[in-house]
Amino acid sequence: MRAIAAGMGLGMLLAGASAWTQNNPQAQSAASSQQPVSVATTPDYSAIYCSGFITSEHNDETHLISGEESNNRLVFTTRDYVFISKGSNQGVRVGDRYSVVRPDKDPDDVQWFKWQHKLLKAMGTYYIDLGQLKVINVQPNISTAEVTFACEYLQRGDVVRPFEERPAPPYKPAENDHFTPVSGKAVGMLVAGKDFSQGFGKFSTAYVNLGTNQGVKVGDYMRAFRYQGSHSETVPNYDGYQYKMYGFGSTPQKYEWNDLPREIIGEGIVINVGPNSCTLMVTNSRMEIYTGDYVEIE
């Protein structure tokens, strides 16, 4: 009996809901409408302004001193008031905007591919993007600013730089041709990654040793590729794997890395650029991409 009663109750509930929907045009429209899922056409704000960068240009004269309630605050974040080390005597005005960054080094200091340390030194200093400030009060040598946007926490001593707009370049359709010919344009390497990562997939951030001095600009696409048998890559391998595998055959002839076709593994879009480096966001990957892999401008 209980089962029968429960079934009758459920039937009445469904019938009532159906009748309500039929008599309510707004609900009927909402139930029948199928809204298309929006597709991003550009990298979002956080991807652009929290990507970090490597640059040889240094402008580290202004610093975050501390902020309100500094007696019990270790760090600062969105909507907090902080103090910066310049004021009206140095040209600061109410309404000025600044970016906050922090120079950083990999604590492990491990070289993941053959030329990594040498290339990083030539590219410049790695900076973490931390957030943005807007000046709300100015004194002769000190200014107070509100944290209007934060990627990470801000702390005492962080570098404060005049804010620069970063354009959000448009995406293009993914390239899926495994045999795209060489573009003939500048070739570089994926030298490092955001937060010192050494492997990348879709939407990962990497740093390349090509910049404005090599003709790179924001919005450029770069194609990632590697060679079979090269010993400069981070990809795990052993000697001669491109033509022999212990217990699973080999060819009569020895093949070097430059005897075989290159392997196209993905592509990315340039979202920031410096003199000798650029920040690349991976937009498409056929497999995991590593530091030490090559890129070319498409």
Structure description:
With 298 residues, the protein is an alpha+beta fold. The protein has two domains: 45-162, no CATH class; 187-297, Elongation Factor Tu (Ef-tu), domain 3 (Beta Barrel). 14% of the residues lie in helices and 30% in strands. It has helices spanning 2-23, 25-32, 45-49, 116-123, and strands at 53-55, 64-67, 81-84, 97-103, 125-138, 143-150, 159-162, 187-193, 199-200, 205-208, 221-226, 263-273, 278-285, 289-290, 294-297. The strands form three sheets. Strands 1, 2, 3, 4, 5, 6 and 7 form a seven-stranded antiparallel sheet that branches. A six-stranded antiparallel barrel has the order 8-10-13-12-11-15. A two-stranded antiparallel ribbon has the order 9-14. Strand 5 and strand 6 form a beta hairpin. Helix 1 (2-23) packs across helix 2 (25-32). The chain starts with a helix and ends with a strand. 31% of the residues are buried. The model is unreliable at 1-10 and 26-32 (pLDDT under 50).
Entry summary:
The chain has 298 residues and is α+β, with helices and mostly antiparallel strands.
Annotate the secondary structure layout.
Blueprint: H1 2-23, H2 25-32, H3 45-49, E1 53-55, E2 64-67, E3 81-84, E4 97-103, H4 116-123, E5 125-138, E6 143-150, E7 159-162, E8 187-193, E9 199-200, E10 205-208, E11 221-226, E12 263-273, E13 278-285, E14 289-290, E15 294-297
Antiparallel strand pairs: 1-5, 2-3, 3-6, 4-5, 4-7, 5-6, 8-10, 8-15, 9-14, 10-13, 11-12, 11-15, 12-13
Helix pairs in contact: 1-2
